[in-house]
Amino acid sequence: MTGPAVAIDCEGVGLTYTAKTGTAVNALENVRCRFAPGKVTAIIGPSGCGKSTLLQIARGFLNPSQGRLRFVTLGGQAAAAPAMATVWQAFNLFPWRNVLDNVAFGLELAGVSRGEREARAKAALAKVDLAGFEDKYPKQLSGGMRQRVGIARALVMEPDVLLLDEPFGALDAQTRLVLQEQLATLVETSGTTAILVTHSIEEAILLADTILVMTARPGRIAAEITVDLGRPRSLATTHHPEYGVLFDRIYGLLRDEVVRAMTTEGEA
Length: 268
Ligand SMILES: Nc1ncnc2c1ncn2[C@@H]1O[C@H](COP(=O)(O)OP(=O)(O)OP(=O)(O)O)[C@@H](O)[C@H]1O
Prior knowledge:
With about 270 residues, the protein is α/β, with parallel strands linked by helices.
């Protein structure tokens, strides 16, 4: 982390896509939320409610159709956009590059010298427990290992903000659990701001300080929930009575919205 503590504020953000048929798709409506610096915010909501769209807006890849995005210091001053890096669900690794060169790719684009990028890529791989795998190629790795390479590739850029778009969605349940625990440790120790899009209530509770529960499309913030469970968190956290209370509350909020999303699916 290099920059000052900067919050990302969504002030009445809305976004309307134009579908290929020409129909307007109202993806987000009047979203008001803050992604606080040094904290993990999870975004959870029914399929198609605009979670990834909100992440793309926070990243600056999409401009809101209504409202605005602001970067502000904790003192309330306008600030420059913090440095961000994204971990995607698809592994997106270059098959012809070994693990080290995959992780170092962003640094290469940024013109960092070979010696420095190799040292930084090795350090990032060590953070995700992949020291010793530098010379392997993606096809030699399991799905979980590939996703850890994907996380290392984002970490190597030393972002102020790490954006995670369903990072474990494509993995089996056991691998997912192990990676959730590892990621929980990583965010706890790094102090990086993180924004996590997930379909998993468990993942949101294990990782986040704040959970934004979204409505069905057009996505709005239905509730902002603070997770007061201590850290470090692990599978054992799921046996904590407060975990059950939080889970039920989030499930209750989501259930109706999921049903609503199912009945409106395909309308756009
Ligand atoms: N480029 C686009 N053009 C038109 N409609 C789009 C476009 N991208 C997304 N949409 C629509 O906008 C809505 C929100 O999409 P988005 O991917 O942000 O939702 P999501 O909550 O991340 O979905 P999921 O949980 O299924 O990944 C969806 O109805 C989607 O079909």
